[in-house]
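step 4 of 6: structure.
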Amino acid sequence: MSTVDLRQALILYATETGTAQEVADRVARECRRIHICSQVLSMDAYSAEDLISEILVIFIVSTTGSGAEPRAMTVLWNKLLRSDLPPDLFEDVHFTVFGLGDTAYEKFCWPAKRLARRLEGLGAHKLCEGAEGDEQHLLGIDGALEPWLKTLSSSLLELMPLPTGLDIVPSDQTPPARISLVNSTNPQVTTIDPLEHDNDYRLATVKCNTRTTAQDWNQDVRHIELDFVDDIQYSPGDVVVIHPITHADEVEKFLTQMGWGNLADELLEIHHVYKDQSLPDHLSHFSTLRTIFSRYLDFNAVPRRSFFGYLRYFTSDGAEKERLDEFLSPEHADELYDYCFRVRRTIQEVLSEFRNVRIPKNYIFDIFPPLRPRQFSIASSVKKHPRSIHLCVAMIKYKTKLKIPRRGVCSTYLAQLQPGQELRIRTLKGLLRLPSDNNIPIICVGPGTGVAPMRAVIEERIQRKAFGNTLYFGCRSSKKDQHYASEWQLYSANHELIYRVACSRDGPEGVKRTYVQDLIIEDAARIWKLLDEDGAHVFISGSSNKMPAAVKAALIHAIITCASRSEEQASQYIFDLEKNRRLIEECWS
Ligand SMILES: Cc1cc2nc3c(=O)[nH]c(=O)nc-3n(C[C@H](O)[C@H](O)[C@H](O)COP(=O)(O)OP(=O)(O)OC[C@H]3O[C@@H](n4cnc5c(N)ncnc54)[C@H](O)[C@@H]3O)c2cc1C
Ligand SMILES: Cc1cc2nc3c(=O)[nH]c(=O)nc-3n(C[C@H](O)[C@H](O)[C@H](O)COP(=O)(O)O)c2cc1C
């Protein structure tokens, strides 16, 4: 590889839920260790036309629903796909790609794979082999990231050798903090909700927050209605983005544990020193530790490997150092897994065990991950409920392998919202798209809270007088967790919907349980007619575990039995439906 003189790199990331951004920060720190100056940008903040004049671009790309690219990548990706681009367009550009994905999904890291292929097709030079982080790995994304960083570093040094007089910064040297915090004495400053300044966000008032599952049922699922003063626009399939606020008691407990209880409400000025390291979105220049740990940083998250790296810098205790060294050594990855990831220990719990760690306040944004906003499918049609958004939200409540009770951060926040309370939310385009022709039938498969976008879709269709609607809903008990049952029954009585429900636990003990996919198999002939003769569109929504694959297998089965196609032909049929956007999945873990 020939060398280049300008020692700089562009790190372009595309993230949907923030992990790729954290990885980009980590890559930038690695570049800094070898004195390469890097600029870190989200792909949607970068002009694709400038790519041609870059020397080196490191792409960090996650994967979202059905193997699609994150929204932030779409514009750049569409430009790269143009058929009139010459094959030597990027002959002066070096690149590598780190993909983030999850092998539990069918299309593992597709955007990263496709991007690498396309760039090579346009003449760009691979700096080094890319890598793909997998959420299913023992160490999550870090399982592939840490070894890849080593490869990346040595390839970078080959392309951009260290100038004489400079040494690689040893990995045990504490990196500088990305911010500096200064106590502010400015009495003029008031801390207001920074989402107020973001025009994408709208103020919503909680109209109702009611439980849809029976009181004596173990799962708490809420129907939440949010009202707006002005008209709002959204389409069926769109999602809302909600920024959770951690419960005040938990924040207080955490700040006391950290020894910051007395400082919690001091007004601080935040100076962003190292711009190659990101700060949480919407962070104000002035804030307090209480606000920061309520709204921006997540001490309830299961920590990543790099968190333990920082603890190693900030403990003075020999035994703790030894334990942390063990966790950080690649040979002992299983110990870190057993200690932390398997049992889902939180950052707060780890900190309560490593009692000698003293975190300097300037390092909080390096050590604690951002508190991520969560997405929820809209469960209403704006045509039926103007100035209103409905949600169907499952409260996350479970016990870890250590029998510690846990609650989801955002669902807990939503659960305690009372009518009249306000919050700021934004909407985003989802994946589902209704056929523009109202005569085309739709088949909705939405078990559990997967019914949320289906309610939006069905309400919208009925408003449009499109009555060729079928819903396959799945729950455990017809009496306990059949969300919106009375609505489905009414539509059904009015011939606006064919409602099929699988209640998996209602049958007698020992008899095979029925799920949505079983109903699809029962209805094979009808399904095939809808698909083949009527050109039906299929929507699948809900849990991303085995459900979507089982539903597709059931559709394949229907095609094999009713259309006398081979398994290969039936699979190709489903593949084509997906390709033509006649079968769309919106699933989440
Ligand atoms: C496009 C999209 C649409 C969505 N729509 C909806 C919707 O309509 N309704 C809805 O309820 N949710 C929906 N979600 C999911 C939602 O965004 C949140 O992920 C969910 O509410 C959990 O957030 P939380 O903050 O409460 O939980 P978190 O604090 O994020 O905790 C969730 C994590 O806890 C762990 N966990 C959960 N249960 C268990 C268990 N039993 N055992 C072990 N570990 C466990 C898992 O690691 C899980 O990732 C959607 C997600 C996406 C991406
Ligand atoms: C709704 C949703 C859909 C996903 N779909 C896929 C997928 O099709 N293929 C894949 O490899 N990973 C998929 N993933 C996994 C993410 O790519 C992975 O968790 C990644 O670390 C997220 O990175 P981000 O936070 O930067 O977006 C999906 C995750 C979610 C939440």
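step 5 of 6: annotate
 - The pocket of flavin mononucleotide (ligand 2) is lined by residues 15-20, 62-67, 70, 100-102, 105, 107-109, 135, 141, 588-589 (CB under 6 Å).
 - The chain is about 30% helix and 20% strand.
step 6 of 6: archive
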